[in-house]
Amino acid sequence: MGVTMSSTTVSKSRIFSGIQPTGNLHLGNYLGAIRNWVALQDEFESIYCVVDLHAITVPQDPMQLRQSTREVTASLIAAGISTERSILFNQSRVLQHAQLAWTFNCVARLGWLNRMTQFKEKAGKNRENATVGLYSYPTLMAADILAYKATHVPVGEDQKQHLELTRDIAQAFNSAYDVDFFPLPEPQIFGSATRVMSLRNGSSKMSKSDNSEYSRINLTDDKDVITQKIRKAKTDPEPLPSSPEGLKGRAEAQNLVGIYAALADVTVESVLQEYGGRGFGNFKPALAELAVAKLSPIGEKMRLLLESPEDIDHILDEGAARAEAIAAPIVEKVNDIVGFLGHK
Ligand code: AMP
Ligand code: TRP
What we know:
Layout: E1 2-5, E2 8-11, E3 14-19, H1 27-40, E4 45-50, H2 52-55, H3 62-78, E5 87-90, H4 96-105, H5 110-114, H6 117-123, H7 132-146, E6 152-154, H8 160-176, E7 186-188, H9 223-231, H10 251-264, H11 268-275, H12 280-306, H13 309-338
Parallel strand pairs: 3-4, 4-5, 6-7
Antiparallel strand pairs: 1-2
């Protein structure tokens, strides 16, 4: 379904997205990212990447990094990513990412990177001690996307700024070299529950770095753990309202209703039509039942896959070969445009 353009073949719409192999995936990753990746692979040529190069922007234990790479790969497959229809691989296997990132480091400006809020958050107070890699993280992300000339990038809200930078880099490259080479990729931000909040605090994001296990539901949690975490989730004493306006100022209630709507694939309005006027004693068991029905099969499949790590490694080998076949001619052309001798 591709169209041929000069020396490379690009399809009309190509999806690229990435996820870091750090720790357990949780409900926020599932509703904000993975679930959408699964839906998109029917419609688009899709490339999904476990970004191990990004992971080492902060210290990682090598054994743990290998293990997390397998775990994240297993959870993507368990959640429904097809390794036939989509390409699934780990970033470090395709050298073109790092190569193109260097060229982009020489296109992007300090001023652009200085605005990145994720760097400020991750570097914290001790900025002098952050790695150069953490600072230039977004130019590598731009390389991930543009090494495939991807046109659409499904991400959560928090990655929007990096996507905008990717577009700026694509445009700056095209104009510096007077070419019309890179497309400007579009973010695809989905649905009602794109931002899943902590179960302990409705105003902070559900995150793998939160100290409290009760703040998040991991994809590996079993039935009992899921049920218990929902039972203990923070709420307020009021019954649920019958329309979304009534959720204003009630961050925890809004979060739980949003999670229910996303898992059931219905609107917040329709959840409130059913549960408006009822208390959390009534709503939480229904939410727990729904979450268990949707999530526990994923956890079970994931555990099964992880029993054969060599099969996972084999899937990643094949994915890397397919990814490289797309990225190599594109980055080769970039090298030629830039003026590196011996490329075409
Ligand atoms: P991270 O866990 O930060 O590496 O994010 C992996 C993917 O999951 C990205 O596309 C994020 O936007 C998405 N994501 C992470 N946390 C959440 C959350 N609490 N709500 C929605 N999406 C999230
Ligand atoms: N930065 C993204 C995150 O933290 C992960 C990522 C790396 C990514 N490369 C990407 C997402 C390319 C989309 C496209 O979640």
